[in-house]
Structures
1.
Amino acid sequence: RHNDKMVKVMFADILHVAADRSYCRIITTRKEYLLSMPMKRLEEKLPAANFCRTHRSHIVNLLQVDEISDGMVRMGKELLPLSPSMKGDFMRRLNAV
């Protein structure tokens, strides 16, 4: 829901998702949406082939990643954290896409 309307968000348009307590901020190529759903539940609904957790508070669309540097993932103008415990899985999944 966005402004009392049901909005369809295409998976391909999602850049990344950020956890904000029991909410998720879905950042797309055009807008940002706030969803009243825990990150764990949203992660289960996203297609695993294209989305990967990089940090306990962030899920990224692997098709939208621009750069990877020491502990960071760049998506457009945004820098997102890449935790050491999730780096191995992230790099494996990124190479598979």
2.
Amino acid sequence: MTYLETIDWLWAHLPMYQEKGRAAFRGKLDNILLLCDHLGNPQEHFPCLHIAGTNGKGSSSHALASVLQEAGYKVGLYTSPHLKDFRERIKINGVDIPEEAVVHFVEENKEYMEGEDLSFFEVTVGMAFDYFARERVDIAVIEVGLGGRLDSTNIITPIVSLITNIGKDHTEILGNTLEEIAREKAGIIKRQIPVVISEFHPLTAPVFKQVALEKESEIYFANSLEVPYTMDLKGGYQAKNIKGIVQTLRVLQQKGWKITEEHIEKGLSHIVANTHLMGRWQLLGEAPKTICDTAHNAHGFTEILSQLQQEKYDTLHMVLGFVKEKDLSSILPMLPKNARYYFCKPQIDRGLDATVLQEKAREYGIEGVVFSSVKEALTKAQQEAKVTDFVYVGGSTFIVAEVV
């Protein structure tokens, strides 16, 4: 098979959460354990970091990988979902897994995968572990896909676990309260393995403390940490992420990893160059200034709106689209009524029809125009915006994927 044929086979034969939603979420670790056993348990052959959280886990994972690269380590990085190319999910020192490696993995294990009830995510996690083991990485940074406790990545035993923050998202799977969601995220805490919490919240902190106590794991709340560094990732919310990142690096230093202050400074200021991260307050154009961001829940939009308040513009134009199961009642009320809205649908099965979004927005006093595609909506927004205006594109990772 060619690379494109291989990717088509994966999408056609394996249920994918990004496309199918809850129907593709397994909610158990049996399959990934069996797959990794079939592969020779590659996850046991390299040290790793495990990153969970409602928002910020992608930025934090890339930042940690960047610093470790600057320190001279061969660093594997597993994240999800991808924006443009499947291979973005699996990288070593910022370089995507080669097409031939993807093809080889599928061809070598196709018979096994066809005989098992595996999900797309389970297969990609197994592929990442197998690739990192074969390439003998010095360390891997592994981002949780969804939740933590029952996420397919949660068969690893990391050096340090990092939980960025807790917000209400995927409530149909993880729970309706912050405490319930925190307990699912806390599922990545392993016995006697230190855990770092980037943000302190009075409702979730007791959950993390209790689980850490049960697991005899040292816990660090990084919110009060003084950080003398800056990141090249834009967006005011990165000021919260950076505290957890640096605290995680401090724990690694204590464990003997050779990471200097220069490595941290350079790594945090070269995240995009080292890892090729996209979609975090990413500049798409000037005059009018056009920004996209993958924020897709109430917690994320709170940070986005705070960042927008720091920008200078005459009129705000918002190109928005969501997935069907998104809790719009927690997002739409906070959006500014005086902005101009361009509603569109991400081109996936889970994409919310733009007309439905328009009707929902109207319930909260927000008027907008429906467009047949993300590209059409963005083009119209940029045409109507003056050079002194601001255009924001977001609402879903899949909206951003269509414009970056």
3.
Amino acid sequence: MRRPRYSQYDQVWIGILIGCIVPILGYGLTLYFYDIMDQFEIFQAANSNSIFRERTIALIAIIANVIPMQLLNRRDLPNAMRGIVFPTFIYVVIWMFFYGFELLGINV
């Protein structure tokens, strides 16, 4: 049986809050794991380019928003899902400004 459509957590501002916090936590965790792997010298020879590391960590942090979106989808909270889209879009625009144009070969 499906739950009622309305929930106290099905609000856009809750999604915006989740969408802002999850990438920050994802960035911190990914940076922490990269540092641990550096201590064990796993990535030292394979990845000497620091801009690649920054770009990859930032992209993983943005993609981390997929997890709460999927959880909200399973709980049938569409307004909270819509809220996650706004900060994700802003993070993608910021990522494109810093790294995307270089990858595309566009001089800004």
